[in-house]
Amino acid sequence: MKRLTCNISGRVQMVMYRSFVLGNAKRLGLKGIVQNMEDGSVKVVAEGDKESLDHLLQLLNKGPRLARVESVKETWSEATGKFSEFKIVYDGRFDKVRSKVHNLLD
User: Fold this and answer.
1) Is 36 a catalytic residue?
2) Cys-Cys link to 12, which of 17, 21, 87, 101 (CB 3.0-4.6 A)?
3) What pTM was estimated for this model as a whole?
4) pLDDT tens-digit profile of 29-41?
């Protein structure tokens, strides 16, 4: 098992990028997190088999239709087993409100 940590920059916030990552990571059977960063980038930490992580990396470079990915900085390491699922980490006041709405809809 491997861990892939990526910092994605470009137009990746407010374009459903985190939801795109969440859906694809779950489909690929990966565990980890995706979160918006204060600098406008998105951070992804995913653990799973190398083949699934490679596929996710290809998807991260593309992003959803409205995104414009300018760069993906990747780091590989051994998995820690820290995560039990793949989820969006919400930070800030806007994300906390959005998280509550998302939880109501689930």
Assistant:
1) yes
2) 17
3) 0.86
4) 999 999 999 999 9
